[in-house]
Amino acid sequence: MLQVAFIRDHKEDVIKRLAKRNIDATQMIEDAISLDEERKQLQTNLDNTLAESNTLSKEIGMLYKSGKASEANVLKEKTAQFKEDSKALGDKLNAKSEELTQLLYKIPNVPHESVAKGNSEEDNEEIYSEGDIPKLHEGALPHWELAKKYDIIDFELGNKIAGAGFPVYKGKGAKLQRALIAYFLDKNTNAGYTEYQLPLLVNEASCYGTGQLPDKEGQMYHDSRDDLYLIPTAEVPGTNVFRDVLLAETDLPIGITGYTPCFRREAGSYGAHVRGLNRLHQFDKVEIIRVEHPNNSYKAFDGMIAHVKDILAELKLPYRILRLCGGDTGFPAAMTYDFELFSTAQDRWLEISSVSNFESYQANRLRLRFKNSNGKNELAHTLNGSSLALPRVLAGILENYQTEDGINIPEVLIPYTGFDKI
Fold it and tell me: Cα separation of 179 and 143, whole Å?
């Protein structure tokens, strides 16, 4: 979340940049500043009351030592009032602090100055593209038909077992899925990321830490009995590795990677554009996460973009990169680039990765700090990206690599699959 000091010092700029998200944040910003002023006044009153109480206690002690018990007992009655006043002020301070925190949770991150104002994905800016769109044979099929033809993914079986959006991978389909996971992890660890195996369930504090709550509550599966959430992405447990952590400046940068299944309710997602693997309730993803010094986070951001580009170049899949406009940028992100690959059989672009810089927004929620060269605690910057999300990458491979007599396997994956064709 945004720091109140930053909001106060840059009030007009914060309001102006949040307008890129099509939000008039004026009232929220004014309320945050006002609540903080009330909180600070309560803190001052409490500090003064405690100081007076301490002074009185010392005076009472001196009177007792001087044999003036009767005078001390008179003053002692005043300490009871100080205790009542202190408790009342403490309760008001806690309530005001909580009110301020809840308001700050509702204010999204300020978009980077280079992010354009826009309403939706229609206003996103294409900044890069690579790869030739293959010319397929007559009668080429979308991946859900290929999956059925070659018996490698069973959507109907998944529907029977769990419901729509839970496919069953079979035979060479399952092995290709496993090959992609291993390949992505090897690429990430070879680039210096440390591999983590992370929990698939997280607590409420973890969801607030990365900004899934309160923004995306309805999109997550929730176990109310134990108050745990199925993860929508490895970003949540991976970034929370660093919650309540104070790092040394020399610890930075830190990069971790992890493979997890991910779970999203995707309420209200219907239609042809979500057929097959295009949108699922359970899917596999390999994530990369970075903790960076604020001075280096955008250089690291560029490095993450280059890393994902290298993976797609090796897979020989046609793709483009979009810089998201303010209206399409996620709640906690300052800047996001989306990668999309072209599905020739569907004749449409499919999102396969989002790479985001959250600057200090998540770190403030997480209380993730490092001790800088001046010995002061400073908020770190966090970044994350899909490297990569598997369903649409797999769909792109099946569709773009199909031939009249089967589906070729990208050359870079053959050492992982052990076969070169389905």
Answer: 18
Q: Is residue 125 part of a domain?
A: yes
pTM of whole model > 0.85?
yes
Reduced to 3 states (helix: H, G, I; strand: E, B; else coil), residue 394 is helix
* pLDDT recorded at residue 269: 53
pLDDT digits over 242-263, tens only?
Answer: 999 999 999 999 999 999 999 9
Which residues, 6+ apart, have CB-to-CB distance to 413 below 8 Å?
Answer: 176, 179, 180, 183, 315
Q: Both 141 and 266 in a single domain?
A: yes
Outline where DSSP puts E strands in 89-193.
125-130, 153-154, 168-169
Our count of domains for the chain comes to 2
367 and 227 both lie in a single domain: yes
Of 37-41, 77-81, 268-272, 365-369, the range with the lowest mean pLDDT is 268-272
Polymer length in residues for the chain: 422
Spell out where 81-137 has E strands. Answer: 125-130
Strand, helix or coil at 122? Answer: helix
